[in-house]
Q: What sequence folds into this?
């Protein structure tokens, strides 16, 4: 819920390629050239090209089964990431609109943690009835009551609501749309036991008020939440959680959308509820 630049040019190391600086003014009378990219932007471009190249090579080799595989090659391959597709079907059941009855496996715990992060970061947390339903669904029974009391106090704080631009009852001003959305970028199992698994969820958030008169425009932030999940009544439940900032990626030089475009996007694009 929450929320340098030097011009120049240089050789690319030992690659044999040189970046050439063109004249600052078009010799044919055109507009002046834009300044050359800063080293940081140039680095981003180079890294982006390398990533795309690696992806292209992997895609091209994916279907190549013409030669027998070396039995020793498996050990040299990188270990698959926790969020790679596994073929396991997503859960089909929901409790209070939140996916539930996750598998009693590491993947099930990761999926539960990602979905719970989405629910806990949603705009529904600003509605008392919906907040109580979310808390009672995602937290273990022994801590749900304490969490609900603490969250009721936080979400009913007039100072807090005023700071985020909401009215006393937690609703947005007339003509504005309140946006609070969590988008998981990945999950990682930090430790695991048969009935207790610690999962870290890295995610970005969209938070703010979308509208031409908004004094709190929608902004993006990055966080990592750590959830200790316990196996209770045939499902994973949160027994403790904590949040920290980042990792935060470097922002690109993209122009921010208008308030109308942001409102339209939030209204038309539904958020994901299942991460695996």
A:
């Amino acid at each position: 819920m929450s929320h340098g630049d030097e011009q120049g040019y240089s050789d690319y190391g030992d690659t044999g390629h040189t970046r050439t600086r063109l004249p600052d003014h078009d010799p044919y009378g055109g507009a002046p050239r834009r300044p050359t990219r800063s080293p940081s932007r140039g680095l981003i471009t180079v890294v982006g090209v390398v990533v795309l190249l690696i992806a292209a090579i992997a895609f091209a080799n994916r279907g190549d089964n013409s030669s027998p595989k070396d039995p020793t090659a498996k050990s040299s391959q990188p270990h698959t990431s926790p969020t790679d597709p596994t073929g396991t079907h997503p859960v089909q059941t929901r409790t209070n609109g939140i996916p539930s009855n996750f598998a009693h496996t590491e993947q099930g715990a990761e999926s539960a943690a990602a979905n719970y992060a989405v629910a806990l970061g949603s705009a529904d947390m600003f509605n008392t009835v919906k907040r109580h339903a979310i808390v009672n669904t995602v937290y273990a029974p022994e801590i749900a009551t304490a969490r609900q009391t603490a969250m009721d106090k936080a979400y009913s704080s007039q100072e807090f609501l005023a700071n985020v631009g909401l009215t006393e009852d937690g609703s947005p001003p007339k003509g504005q749309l309140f946006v609070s959305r969590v988008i998981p970028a990945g999950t990682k199992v930090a430790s695991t036991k048969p009935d207790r698994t610690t999962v870290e969820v890295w995610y970005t958030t969209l938070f703010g008020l979308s509208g031409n008169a908004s004094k709190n425009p929608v902004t993006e932030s990055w966080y990592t939440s750590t959830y200790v999940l316990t196996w209770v009544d045939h499902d994973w439940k949160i027994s403790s959680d904590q949040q920290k900032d980042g990792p935060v990626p470097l922002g690109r030089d993209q122009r921010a959308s208008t308030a109308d475009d942001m409102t339209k996007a939030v209204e038309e694009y539904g958020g994901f509820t299942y991460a695996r």
